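Objective 1b. Sequence-to-structure analysis of dihydrolipoyllysine-residue succinyltransferase.
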Amino acid sequence: MSATATDAVARFRTMVRIRVFEDHAARLYRDGQIPGFVHLSTGQEAVAVGVCHALRRQDVITSTHRGHGHAIAKGADIEAMFAELMGRATGTCGGMGGSMHIADPRLGIFGANGIVGAGIPIAGGAALAMKLKRERRVAVAFFGDGAVATGAFHEATNLAACLSLPLLLVCEDNGYSEFSSTHTQHPVPVAERARAYDLPAQVVDGNDVAAVHDAAMRMVSVVRSTSRPALLVARTLRRRGHYEGDPQRYRSEAFDASFRDPLDQAREALVEGGVPAADVDRWEQEERAFVDAALARASAAPWPEPDRMVSPLAATYPERESPGFAERGPRTRVSRLLKKAMADALDDDPGVFLAGIDVGLGGNVFGLTRDLAAKFPDRVIDTPISESAIIGAAVGAALDGMSPVVELMYLDFLGVCLDQLLNQAAKLRFMTGGAARVGLTVRTQYGVGRSSAAQHSQSLEALLAHIPGLVVVMPSAPEDHYGLLRSAIASPDPVVFIENRLLYEKEAFEPQLDFRVPLGKARIARQGDDVTVVSASQGVWTALQAAERAAGHGISVEVVDLRTISPWDRETVLASLAKTSRIIVYSEAVREFGISAEILAEAAESGFWNLDAPPRRLAGRFSPVPYSPPLERAWLPSADNLFDEILHICRDK
């Protein structure tokens, strides 16, 4: 048998394997052996196999909620996949991910995804890592036609085109976007979208595995050699519902009848090419037996032990103290320390890069990255205004082993890219059973007090702290900006590093290169005996002002600087409370549902018998930040207001 014929047989067998796997999955779900949702790729086997058989093992794919076929075609172990669908300990992800989140980073399977379109920016990030590492690899993003309407598709495609990334976009145009016909969802054919981004595009019969494979081979070769993205649109048919149990009242019998079954086409092509039908039948039976045996073994696998649940964080916090301390040497400013931290990290680790809006030639809106692009021209990258694509690219590059530092210009812009933090960066380690490393840093800033108004002032750390799997840092002390940022960049976990722009010009001592501040460890900014005030970032400076005034009234205030908001240092806060017996939390965010509520709840639960007065909190009003200076000053409690709270809580001393 010729090599070409051997390849055709391998493709046919993989298609059969996928079909049998999906048939079993449908039955298992029907019988209650698979919990949760199941979305099957029955009818789309030719796309998964045609594309993945054109890839190398080192290449990367991202997938969709209908991703079983992609994973199998890329080489995933089907016994482990069955176990994962059934929630067993031996599953691909240890039972942590389930049907919609199959992943195996070791095989370049960077994850199926329950969020439509969300895998496209991640594939773009993997492609960016490949380009930066000068590796002749390719990233492939599989997505359905429905994803073309999402911002993630457009942002990631535009970013890939602007940065010239080795990304192959594969649209499975499968006839239906959830419960709607494709033609009702798009004003132009999907392939026409490529013209807007100057991408080569090809439309192929997605039920003809040979046609898909030929097209994929050509496009992958071009993407690999030119490091330019391309779009492959495979017209196919989703032969089952959007999910198992879908009544499918929206389907068109005439439309469905216009598509042939891809397995029938592949089988006929083999026979017409001279392969004996008996051999084809035998191969099909061998694949069925192979899948049946894998299912039998998976069905006997144990359930995961609850006490062995994977932590969403790879590191243990607080981190241990590191050698090196800031020495009283040359004076500098916080803004320059942040720039120095990034420059030193770029010097130390070739896996570090910076990316964001105007971080290169523009040097950042506050000048914090000025001149870094000249020193590191390949690793300080200007991007379009595409926050979802930027954060998604960081996720994909981190999965590919790099340590990206990306900038979100204002913390207020969190809403436009929250999915890539909430559902991707924060969850991927957990959903892959610990297999994924997602070490990335998102630098951002906020600040109340400069009339920046409601969309450029918000302190949103509580939103982020409520997401398991994120580390949230808010430095206060000038030198800590360097030490904490260096620790964040080196962390194996996703870190959101929130700066306060009002601190950028504070004076600082230039630290030694080995100076690090451990993540998760608070500091005592001022020793005291009568009352504990807990805060972070600019709030610590307000607390220090109030404490100094209180000292003139004979009240000794201990100020605790959290430094890391999540995970926060309970031990240090509770130890301070045990010492002072009174506690106030001061925050520049709105009062309701903020971090102060969490800290005071812990104080009441774990430190109740130490309390000599009701715990207090002081924060912004529950409204957007106003623009007018007098209103803004009234919105945020001042050092005078905090001083009054200190007098109130210590009135019986």
